[in-house]
Amino acid sequence: MHDSAQAVQSRVATLRFEQGRLALIDQRLLPQAFEYRYCDSAQSVAEAIRNMVVRGAPAIGCAAAYGVALEAQRQSGQPREAFQRALGVGFELLAASRPTAVNLGWALQRMRQKLTALSELPNDAIAAGLLTEAQAIQLEDLALNRRMGALGAKLVPDGARILTHCNAGALATAGHGTALGVIRSAVEAGKRVSVLADETRPWLQGARLTAWELLADGIPTTLIADVSAGYLMSRGEIDLVIVGADRVAANGDTANKIGTYSVAVLASRHHIPFYVACPLSTIDLALHDGSGIPIEERAAEEVTGYRGVHWAPEGVQVRNPSFDVTPAELITALITERGIVRPVTDAGIRGLFHAAY
Prior knowledge:
Layout: E1 15-18, E2 21-25, E3 36-39, H1 42-50, H2 57-75, H3 80-95, H4 102-117, H5 123-153, E4 161-164, H6 179-188, E5 194-198, H7 205-216, E6 221-224, H8 229-234, E7 240-243, E8 247-249, E9 254-257, H9 260-269, E10 274-277, E11 283-284, H10 301-304, E12 305-306, E13 309-310, E14 323-326, E15 333-336, E16 339-341, H11 346-352
Parallel strand pairs: 4-5, 4-7, 5-6, 7-10, 8-11, 10-15
Antiparallel strand pairs: 1-2, 2-3, 8-9, 9-14, 12-13, 15-16
Helix pairs in contact: 1-2, 1-3, 2-3, 2-4, 2-5, 4-5, 5-6
């Protein structure tokens, strides 16, 4: 499948299960081309996650859940011992695909629990049950994004000029989005907003993905270089910042796409609200603070060039951390499906897990 990206906007689904395979939008190709990649095993899903075909913490979690289901489906004809061994390998491959996004581990743990609950059933019944669980994870993600968006929209004043960094939209989730979900919900509530999207080096998720999503929704969007944010803040041209998250520690320290910390520091300097939108599945209560969050370092080639074009000299040393950690003290509020935490504290975050829907 290969089309003009704009022509297929109404059919966008970040991931979908069809005819026994998982279809993933290849986000490396947007916005120039719209193409689905098809996965039929845990290994192929793990490769898609590792190679950035699919990205965004919630979407990675959904994809990993389907990876387990696909492997169970693929191996269901094997003797029980071989079936269990293959699933164990599948879990390991998926767990190792990307280290920072906690939704990956959360989804795999949920699939392990489901596997344990189904362990007395025949292989084909286990495979069917795991597929049902993966589909439930996807549907739940969409529903909680909607809830999060409605809550977060209350923080957005009419006429707001919003800065966002990276892509935390429908492409990063099962749909609607986290940070962009708040923006979409504000628009649905009748508020007039405009968005400034950081380009987000080195993968350009803001330029390629966020701008594409928002333009398709008819939301006024201006693309800026990452280094422009401070200047525009100093001129009073940004009213608030909303970003997503890949992992949030128990105290509120937040890992998100590299460059987020810089934006948070600038927002603090200019007294601009800095909001983080994330589902509870992104919160890692096992980590006391952000110092324990693993930060993925990716290939040098992502910094020295892009899509076959090289601009850096051969042999130059490169650092390419994919994420950074923003301290909780720089975050104005945490927006979740169960409520808003403001100020961001350990007690406030832990209270979310006991709150009723």
